[in-house]
Write a structure and sequence with these properties.
It comes from marine sediment metagenome. The protein is mainly alpha-helical and about 55 residues long. The protein is built from two helices and no strands.
């Protein structure tokens, strides 16, 4: 959650400074959210698998 907030904050700052356009801001924002969501899903899957392994021991 903190990583997402930090990344989105940096993007917002860049947009406000004029470093990136509004379109680029939205494009990068969506890319960041998608990447973080995918990694979170991978981590959740690994945790579930590990918990299942531990319960079978």
């Amino acid at each position: 959650r903190n990583i997402r907030r930090d990344a989105n904050g940096k993007l917002e700052q860049m947009k406000n400074q004029g470093s990136i356009s509004e379109d680029d801001y939205h494009r990068y924002h969506e890319k960041n959210d998608k990447a973080i969501r995918e990694r979170s899903e991978e981590i959740d899957k690994l945790v579930k698998e590990r918990n299942k392994q531990l319960r079978t021991i």
